[in-house]
Write a structure and sequence with these properties.
single chain, mainly beta, 7-stranded mixed sheet, 4-stranded antiparallel sheet, 11 strands
């Protein structure tokens, strides 16, 4: 069974860059047709898809975050990462990584709380 674990800072100052890493076990991020997404949930709001990286290193982003988000991967560590630049308090959320099947997500990380505050 695939397991995902998010890691990163719990507190980021406004205008700084947020970097989160998702470590995957039980499956390779480079296996054909696998894709891996970042999703977030701001307090009191619904889930928001941030972006995805595919098995062949293609990326796609939410239009609202495209100018600030970047997803990359390290296949040697079986990890993929999210960088979000110029964060504001509106980026405060629980951030999840998930295995993306195109029509839904079959495995999720437990989520990591990120607060943007000075």
């Amino acid at each position: 069974q695939v397991q995902l674990q998010e890691s990163g800072p719990g507190l980021v100052e406004p205008s700084q860059t947020l970097t989160l890493t998702c470590t995957v076990s039980g499956g390779s991020i480079a296996t054909r047709y696998n894709a891996w997404s970042w999703i977030r949930q701001p307090p009191g709001k619904g889930l928001e898809w941030v972006g995805v990286i595919t098995y062949d290193d293609r990326t796609h982003y939410s239009p609202s975050l495209k100018s600030r988000a970047s997803i990359s991967r390290d296949t040697s560590k079986n990890q993929f990462s999210l960088q979000l630049n110029s964060v504001t308090p509106e980026d405060t959320a629980v951030y999840y990584c998930a295995s993306d099947k195109g029509v839904g997500y079959d495995f999720w990380g437990q989520g990591t709380q990120v607060t943007v505050s000075s």
